[in-house]
Amino acid sequence: xxxxxxxxxxxxxxxxxxxxxxxxxxxxxxxxxxxxxxxxxxxxxxxxxxxxxxxxxxxxxxxxxxxxxxxxxxxxxxxxxxxxxxxxxxxxxxxxxxxxxxxxxxxxxxxxxxxxxxxxxxxxxxxxxxxxxxxxxxxxxxxxxxxxx
Amino acid sequence: xxxxxxxxxxxxxxxxxxxxxxxxxxxxxxxxxxxxxxxxxxxxxxxxxxxxxxxxxxxxxxxxxxxxxxxxxxxxxxxxxxxxxxxxxxxxxxxxxxxxxxxxxxxxxxxxxxxxxxxxxxxxxxxxxxxxxxxxxxxxxxxxxxxxxxxxxxxxxxxxxxxxxxxxxxxxxxxxxxxxxxxxxxxxxx
Lengths: 149, 190
Fold this sequence. Notes:
Strand content of chain A: 25-35%
Helix content of chain B: over 70%
CATH architecture of the largest domain in chain A: 2-Layer Sandwich
CATH architecture of the largest domain in chain B: Orthogonal Bundle
CATH class of the largest domain in chain B: Mainly Alpha
CATH superfamily of the largest domain in chain B: RNA polymerase sigma factor, region 2, helix turn helix motif
Order of helices and strands of chain B: HHHHHHHHHH
Radius of gyration of chain B: 18 Å
Distance between the termini of chain A: 37 Å
Number of helices of chain B: 10
Radius of gyration of chain A: 23 Å
Structural class of chain A: alpha+beta
Number of domains of chain A: 2
Domain RNA polymerase sigma factor 70 region 4 type (chain B): 129-182
Order of helices and strands of chain A: HHHEEHEEHE
Strand order of the largest sheet of chain A: 3-4-5
Number of helices of chain A: 5
Largest interface: A-B, 42 and 48 residues
Number of strands of chain B: 0
Structural class of chain B: mainly alpha
Domain RNA polymerase sigma-70 region (chain B): 33-98
Shape of chain B: globular
Protein name (chain B): Sigma-70 family RNA polymerase sigma factor
Shape of chain A: flat
Strand content of chain B: under 5%
Number of strands of chain A: 5
Largest sheet of chain B: none
CATH topology of the largest domain in chain B: Rna Polymerase Sigma Factor, Chain: A
Distance between the termini of chain B: 27 Å
Oligomer: heterodimer
Keywords (chain B): DNA-binding, Sigma factor, Transcription, Transcription regulation
Family (chain B): Belongs to the sigma-70 factor family. ECF subfamily.
């Protein structure tokens, strides 16, 4: 940091002022950037779902986000990674999850809860084309799970 | 410095936002934009000295961040990684310019207002900050970048080196030269 005796009080004061300053340009730009952030997308695969009126598609990033929310809702659990795989007709063939578990949690219980939550989400999103519960693979490792709730 | 707890700005700490955004949570990404955007803008705008180019850089860098988050391993802090993305975009902008506009000492000195004899405190602060902005224009790009990242954004020497792609020793040299120029230019404000 600036030492006033070395670089002058004015530079130290000016540096403090600049550090606490928010440019009006940023204030103007921020709303548009946030709008773009909400509309941003990543390249992701389509996943086929089916309901009474026919087939439809859900992107894997949407599926991943929804599974993450379901797993994070379990106390002491946090999804660290979620990978979806699809088959030739874009049907979901598998989901592999890594779950972080808070220290002291019963891992087998947590894994079962995460597994069930993920599968329920998949059924909700893909309807009749949701794969069986065995298609979901869950790996649990102990980690610091920040209490976000 | 960025908030590290939920209480600081109402959002979870960076590692949690990163994890969520990596898994597709756009609200978490929006929180990252809100938390770090002002500092990134402050840096880019003072290196580029061009509002339109700064806006392009911020938009592109945040798009890079959204797309790059799934592969972000957390070897550096989120903040340092974001500055690295912005720096990359800033360098591309500078590279497009046939010649980076250089402000001569006389021009910059003219921009540095003399301290008024009886100004309001608020105006004094603004004048002093604007004088610093003018003095910064005297610095070559790398000195300016190093100084901003270290002194204003408070990155460590190693982090500044990471952002600029140079060693901490080089960072130290850049900072020493930048400090001398800035202190000399602002000496009227003592």
